[in-house]
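dumping this here before i forget
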Amino acid sequence: MDDPISTTTASYDHIAAEFAARTEHVDSAYLAFRQRFADALPPGGRVADLGCGPGRDAAWLLEQGLQVVGVDRSYEMARLATARGVATALGDLRRPPLAPGSLAGLWSIAALLHVPAAGTEATLRAWSVTLRPGGVLGLSTSAGDGEGWERVQYGGELYRWFVHREPEALLGLLAETGFDVIEHHVRAEQRTWLGVLAIRREV
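structure:
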């Protein structure tokens, strides 16, 4: 197969509409986590949703009165987010197309799990750069160990690259890349998820 990022992006282009339908509804624990992220932001603050997919969360953040930009590598995902009224940019979440210090908040859900493990630290440093000091990071990613291909269960012969990160190691990397973690939790729902709220450290 081709490289993990390109193959995963192509798979999302193929399954965008079905993925949107399958992920539209979330449970109360997730809604509470998302609300805590929004509550930690200044009114009208600028937020990026990295790996925004079809725009479910970005549209909700927009409804909260925030300035929102969604970023995704998948053209079809970005198109769906745009249809929900979200300003979107095609881009790689490992290198967000955003000015340094331009964000009050950064939200990234089920997206870092597609970044190969070797790129974790560089990605977190790039995220840190986009946030102003005191900016808020809301992150959810797969918890565990190892990485590899997973076949899309509803997409024919399509594959995505998944990375499962050990929570303590990821929390340590967040500290090394400029973040103070204020909340983290692990919960099981289809896979095991690590959720994190963190603050960009004052410099």
